[in-house]
Amino acid sequence: MFYLNDHLAFGGLTACQSFGLQIPQDIGIVGFNALGLTKVLSVPVTTVCTPRRLMGVMGARNLLARIRGAKVPNSICLPVEIISGATTRLQF
């Protein structure tokens, strides 16, 4: 299951375990935004790390460009990193 963020992924992990599911044998769990929970949990959650600072910089630049009347792209593809934890069978 892919969750909106790492906090929800941890909640999903806890819920799955309460139903007797084994992680990752029965179900894989992936969080989003690498919120640092993997360092403090007993089971490190696999997560997707986004370049938050770069997203902010690009957003501000595009906003200022639009205010000045410049045409900017509707979307920009930025790199992400998958940080392997113990909640998926595949190691990235």
List the helices and strands and how they pair.
Elements: H1 6-18, E1 30-32, E2 46-49, H2 52-67, E3 81-83
| Main sheet properties | 3 strands, mixed
Evaluate the radius of gyration.
17 Å
Q: Structural class of the helices, strands and pairings?
A: alpha+beta
Q: Mean pLDDT, rounded to whole units? A: 92
Strand content: 5-15%
Give, in spatial order, the strands making up the sheet with the most strands: 1-2-3
Unreliable stretches: none
**Number of DSSP helices?**
2
The dominant shape is elongated
Alpha carbon gap, first and last residue:
16 Å
- Helix percent band: 25-40%
Sequence of secondary-structure elements: HEEHE
Q: What is the number of beta strands?
A: 3
Attribute tags:
single chain; 92 residues; alpha+beta; three-stranded mixed β-sheet; 2 helices; elongated
Task: Explain what the structure shows.
This protein is an alpha+beta fold. About 30% of the residues lie in helices and about 10% in strands. The radius of gyration is 17 Å and the shape is elongated.
